């Protein structure tokens, strides 16, 4: 029903109401006349009353219709008003959404700016923290020569002891291993020295972020495929290796190897150094078959670049021999050790510590094959050479410790107490002065004597080794305390390159 039809109904209803109102008035008059008459007709009165009721009912219904129409009009007006409000709210919602999107975009831009400023602030704080070391390094820029490419030792002489007592790499060894075959650029030298210092102290929570920050800066300025990036990757890999994070270290060394091969060439000494470090890592994880070809390739590069009689070639031969020994390739092991011995004795002389170390390694190879006599001869040769260096030529009164031990073994059943071995040359002092290799040789020969049932001789050597080890540990503790004191003094008064070198030597020793 349309709006016009509703109005017509209301208009007709009002007309009907007027007619009904007139009829009601007439019926009231009629009822009054009937009531006043002398003779009242009950039927007529009843009819008039019924008509009056119908008229009243009609009027009531007409009034309801009029009131309903008015109510519907009010509802329609409210409906139109609500529609207008909804439309306005929708428009405001769209406007607010647009404002919110613009505000969010501005907020994101601001957060990015804040993050960038924070990074710049951290970088500036870091550069300020290392700035005090720059003056020390500026004097070295024109004096520093290309570093040699030393070889990382694969395992120490006493492998079990080293694996049970993991300690950080000493500063000068760490530096040599990390930078082998590649000169540290001037822009990295300060950071490099800081990383080495922290790593050698076992402060990896400082060394690792420094390396990562340097890598990020280098990759931004020079790109990922740059030799400086490979150098920092090598340093970070050795830090991870000291933390026993071998998987992370291997990934970094492989990345460094790819960069150095690409930028320096496949036959560069730095490539050989990275190959060797990777082989060492695989060896420490027991992956000897994977490590061997890497070690052989490093050996080939060194022979081509340095010559077949270079001491670093001998060190590489030692590493290769150890890998082969763990695979029971004893013929190759003997060949590599003997060749390394020839190089050391020819280039460095028979008193070089590497000769004793290689002799000791060769003796351990003989032991694994059951060649006890050959191993015993080599152990005695190491101890004899150490004795002669410390106490001079051997004679009836100046005897090496192994000979003293055997004499004590022979005299153990006689009715007299054995003379303390300390009276026969003070051998614990010789072991302390010489090197850890001598201490290891004492223990190895003592174990061999014990295997042969020579318990008195074994006790003599093992007691000597124990004393020398204890005194060596005391010296290391003292040197660390002195080193910390010297560091604090240098930080207050300023230090020189010679001071740093002396401190590194002291800690390494």
Automatic annotation (TrEMBL):
Q: Which InterPro entries match?
A: Kinesin_light, Kinesin_light_repeat, TPR-like_helical_dom_sf, TPR_rpt
Residue ranges annotated as coiled coil are 72-127
Region of interest called Disordered, as start-end residue ranges on this chain: 484-509
What the entry lists under SUPFAM superfamilies is as follows: TPR-like (SSF48452)
An example of a Gene Ontology cellular component annotation for this protein is: kinesin complex
Bias class Basic and acidic residues marks the residues at 486-509
User: Which keywords label this protein?
Assistant: Coiled coil, Cytoplasm, Cytoskeleton, Microtubule, Motor protein, Repeat, TPR repeat
Keyword flag Repeat: yes
Location within or outside the cell: Cytoplasm, Cytoskeleton
Q: Name one GO molecular function term.
A: kinesin binding
Q: Where are the TPR repeats?
A: 230-263, 272-305, 356-389
Tell me, what's a Pfam family for it? TPR_10
Biological processes annotated in GO: microtubule-based movement
State the similarity comment.
Answer: Belongs to the kinesin light chain family.
PANTHER family with a match to the protein in the record: KINESIN LIGHT CHAIN
Quaternary structure note: Oligomeric complex composed of two heavy chains and two light chains.
General function of this protein? Kinesin is a microtubule-associated force-producing protein that play a role in organelle transport.
Question: What is this protein's record name?
Answer: Kinesin light chain
**Which organism is this protein's natural source?**
Anopheles minimus
């Amino acid at each position: 029903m349309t709006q016009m039809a509703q109005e017509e109904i209301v208009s007709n209803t009002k007309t009907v109401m007027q007619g009904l109102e007139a009829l009601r008035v007439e019926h009231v008059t009629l009822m009054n006349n009937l009531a006043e008459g002398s003779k009242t007709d009950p039927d007529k009165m009843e009819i008039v009353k019924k008509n009056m009721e119908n008229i009243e009912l009609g009027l009531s219904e007409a009034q309801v219709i009029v009131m309903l129409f008015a109510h519907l009009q009010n509802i329609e007006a409210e409906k139109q008003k609500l529609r207008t409000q909804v439309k306005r709210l929708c428009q405001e919602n769209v406007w607010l959404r647009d404002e919110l999107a613009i505000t969010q975009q501005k907020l994101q831009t601001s957060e990015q700016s804040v993050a960038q400023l924070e990074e710049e602030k951290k970088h500036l704080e870091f550069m300020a923290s290392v700035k005090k070391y720059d003056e020390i390094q500026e004097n070295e820029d024109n004096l520093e020569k290309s570093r040699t490419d030393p070889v990382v030792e694969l395992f120490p002489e006493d492998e079990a002891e080293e694996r049970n007592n993991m300690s950080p790499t000493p500063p000068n060894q760490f530096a040599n291993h990390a930078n082998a075959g590649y000169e540290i650029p001037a822009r990295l030298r300060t950071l490099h020295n800081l990383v080495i210092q922290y790593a050698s102290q076992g402060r990896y929570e400082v060394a690792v972020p420094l390396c990562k920050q340097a890598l990020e800066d280098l990759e931004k300025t020079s790109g990922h495929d740059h030799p400086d990036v490979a150098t920092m990757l090598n340093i970070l890999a050795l830090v991870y290796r000291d933390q026993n994070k071998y998987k992370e270290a291997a990934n970094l060394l492989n990345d460094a190897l790819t960069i150095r091969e690409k930028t320096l060439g496949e036959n560069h000494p730095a490539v050989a150094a990275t190959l060797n470090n990777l082989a060492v890592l695989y060896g420490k994880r027991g992956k000897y078959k994977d490590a061997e070809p890497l070690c052989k390739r490093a050996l080939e590069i060194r022979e081509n670049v340095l010559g077949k009689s270079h001491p670093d070639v001998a060190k590489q031969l030692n590493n290769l021999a150890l890998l082969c020994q763990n695979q029971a390739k004893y013929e190759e092991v003997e060949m590599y050790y003997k060749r390394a011995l020839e190089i050391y004795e020819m280039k460095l002389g028979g008193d070089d510590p590497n000769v004793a170390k290689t002799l000791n390694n060769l003796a351990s190879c003989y032991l694994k094959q059951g060649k006890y006599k050959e191993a015993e001869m080599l152990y005695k040769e190491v101890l004899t050479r150490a004795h002669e260096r410390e106490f001079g030529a051997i004679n009836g009164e100046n005897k090496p410790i192994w000979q003293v031990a055997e004499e004590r073994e022979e005299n153990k059943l006689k009715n007299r107490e054995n003379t303390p071995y300390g009276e026969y040359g003070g051998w614990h002092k010789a072991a302390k002065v010489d090197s850890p290799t001598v201490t290891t040789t004492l223990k190895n020969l003592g174990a061999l004597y014990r295997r042969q049932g020579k318990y008195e001789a074994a006790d003599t050597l093992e007691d000597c080794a124990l004393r020398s080890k204890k005194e060596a540990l005391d010296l290391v503790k003292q040197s660390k305390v002195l080193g910390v004191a010297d560091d604090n003094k240098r930080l207050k008064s300023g230090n020189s390159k010679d001071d740093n070198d002396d401190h590194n030597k002291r800690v390494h020793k």
